[in-house]
Structure formats: structure tokens, C-alpha cells
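Quick one, C-alpha cells below:
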């Protein structure tokens, strides 16, 4: 029986400039769909699990297009609610070299922000589920979405389902103060906490000593100190952080740290040449979840997540279409990029 993993969040229409054009140059946009928890559901379905995505989309052709896009990749969409006024949009301008990527949000008043918990049947949604995943983006959308996220976490925990959250702080969506208040409550119902050092500081108030992500410096002891504080406060079973060393918008170092209260493990590091980095954190989260839910030891699950997300950097769009065999080959050390024939 394949494991069922439920994810809850927003899916958006993504409009990106072709190639590396700037917004002001573009005369057309490339269309796809994506969003933190949807990206995780797609990746897990791709690995052969049952990815079930829960959201609310408008009852119009754009909402239907988003659902169809998920179905195309095997995601279970039967519990998606329909209604509200619109699907959120985000615009992406892909950076290169020393020019950073830019995202412009147009998601105010999206259907998922106008939501109540009674639109979802949690008994059905969580039937036979092994895992529930959400992110810090969803509660940032509105007070209603925050209430839904809290309700879903409580419902999952009450059924003995493992829960995870990717902290994912988005400063364009809410203030640091609001984030800390809401996320501190949510994290009481979380088993596996995922997030980088900025997210841990911003959403939960923990700070790593001597780490400057913009300079590409990593001080692993500082992370260990933060992880220990987080475990002490919230009792997380596993804490994980992806580590990005930004050499430029095109070249990054990529690895991860995981901690379970006894073992503090740093994965191997990949030097990635970036095609599209949007969704790379989600592909790490989904890889880690895949590893843990299928019974891999924590270090191996982390290595799987890092290899999966290193490959995601080479794939356009929000979703990770890397296959299990490609990820496992990379974990074994084949990062040559030679033609497979």
C-alpha cells in the first residue's frame, strides 16, 4: 500500500517572463501553476505515493485549469473546495549572474483566503493518511486561512498522523510580529519542522550565531544551537534546514542539516547551476517527507531530499519532475550530467 500524504495550501497561477527577460521587456508570459504545498503533493505523487492536495479555488475556468494541472501529475484533488472570487497570481522574473530573481504577488482576496474549516470533511481527508504537511505561507494569507491551518493540524494530530510544517516566511504577506504569534501556536502541533535559518529567526524568534546567508558562509554550530532551542521549546521530533550558499543568482551551494535530538547531520553539498530555483525548498521538504514516511533513517532521508532538490534547480516550473532513479543515482555520486543511453 502506498503512503497517503495530505498537503494544505494555496495553488497559484504563475506567469513568468520567457528566458531571462525583465518584466518591462516581456510581451508574453509562460503559464504554469504552483504553490508550496501543491509542489510537495506533486513531487510525492511523482515518487509513487498518494499525494492529496487540499485547497479552495474559484468556480471558474482558471480554478479548473489549476486542478487539471495537478491531476496531470497524479495528485488526488477530490477534496478541493470550489468558490470564492479568484485564483491568486504571481509573476516571476528569473535572475541571472548578479541580478536576483523577482516575484510580484497578485493574490489579494484569493479563494483560499476566504475559507472556513467546515468546507472540508477531515474524516474523509485524513482517512488512511500517514502524513500531513503545510507551510507558513498558508496562515499568512488571512485570519481564516490561519484558523483552517490550525484546525487541520489539530485534526491530523488527533488521528495520530505525523505532521510537518515548512516555516517559509514571506515578508510581503505579513509582519514578523504576526508571524511569530500565529506560528508559535501552530508549531505546538508539529512533529517535523523544516525551514532555513532566516525562517527560524523570523517566524519563531530563534537566531543562529555568525551566519550570513548573503555572504554564503555557514557556521554549523550556530544551527545546532538553534535546533536545540527549537526542540526544547516545541518538542519537534525532527528539525531540518536546507542550506543555500548564494555565490550568484546562477550558482549556489546546496546542502541540508537535520537534527532529531541526538544526531546532528550535515548532508553532502552540491554546486548547482540554476535554471529555476522556485520550489527548491518544497522539493527538499517533499524529499525529506518521502524518505521519512517510507522508513529511511533520518540521514538518508535528508540526503534524498537534498539530491531531489539539487535536481529541481535544473527544472523549469514550480514542480520537481526528477525521478526516483535519477535522485538515487545522484545520491550515489553520479552528478556528471552525462547523457544516459
Amino acid at each position: 500500500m502506498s503512503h497517503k500524504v495530505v498537503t494544505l495550501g494555496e495553488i497559484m497561477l504563475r506567469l513568468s517572463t520567457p528566458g531571462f527577460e525583465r518584466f518591462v521587456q516581456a510581451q508574453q508570459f509562460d503559464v504554469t501553476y504552483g504553490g508550496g504545498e501543491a509542489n510537495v503533493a506533486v513531487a510525492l505523487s511523482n515518487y509513487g505515493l498518494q499525494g492529496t492536495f487540499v485547497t479552495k479555488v474559484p468556480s471558474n475556468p482558471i480554478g479548473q485549469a489549476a486542478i487539471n494541472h495537478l491531476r496531470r501529475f497524479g495528485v488526488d484533488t477530490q477534496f478541493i473546495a470550489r468558490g470564492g472570487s479568484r485564483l491568486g497570481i504571481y509573476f516571476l522574473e528569473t535572475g541571472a549572474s548578479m541580478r536576483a530573481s523577482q516575484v510580484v504577488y497578485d493574490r489579494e482576496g484569493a479563494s483560499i483566503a476566504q475559507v472556513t474549516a467546515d468546507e472540508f470533511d477531515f474524516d474523509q481527508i485524513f482517512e488512511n493518511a500517514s502524513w500531513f504537511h503545510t507551510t507558513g505561507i498558508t496562515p499568512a494569507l488571512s485570519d481564516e486561512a490561519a484558523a483552517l491551518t490550525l484546525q487541520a493540524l489539530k485534526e491530523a494530530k488527533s488521528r495520530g498522523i505525523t505532521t510537518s510544517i515548512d516555516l517559509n516566511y514571506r515578508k510581503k504577506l505579513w509582519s514578523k510580529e504576526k508571524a511569530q504569534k500565529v506560528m508559535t501556536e501552530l508549531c505546538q502541533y508539529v512533529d517535523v519542522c523544516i525551514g532555513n535559518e532566516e525562517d527560524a529567526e523570523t517566524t519563531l524568534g530563534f537566531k543562529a550565531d555568525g551566519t550570513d546567508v548573503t555572504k554564503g558562509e555557514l557556521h554549523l554550530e550556530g544551527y545546532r544551537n538553534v535546533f536545540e532551542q527549537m526542540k526544547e521549546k516545541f518538542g519537534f521530533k525532527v528539525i531540518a534546514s536546507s542550506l543555500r550558499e548564494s555565490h550568484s543568482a546562477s550558482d549556489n551551494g546546496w546542502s541540508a542539516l537535520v537534527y532529531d535530538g541526538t544526531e546532528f547531520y550535515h548532508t553532502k553539498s552540491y554546486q548547482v547551476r540554476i535554471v529555476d530555483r522556485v520550489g527548491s525548498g518544497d522539493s527538499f521538504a517533499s524529499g525529506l517527507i518521502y524518505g521519512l514516511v517510507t522508513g529511511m533513517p533520518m540521514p538518508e532521508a535528508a540526503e534524498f531530499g537534498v539530491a531531489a532538490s539539487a535536481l529541481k534547480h535544473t527544472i523549469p516550473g514550480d514542480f520537481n519532475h526528477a525521478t526516483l532513479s535519477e535522485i538515487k543515482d545522484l545520491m550515489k555520486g553520479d552528478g556528471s550530467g552525462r547523457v544516459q543511453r
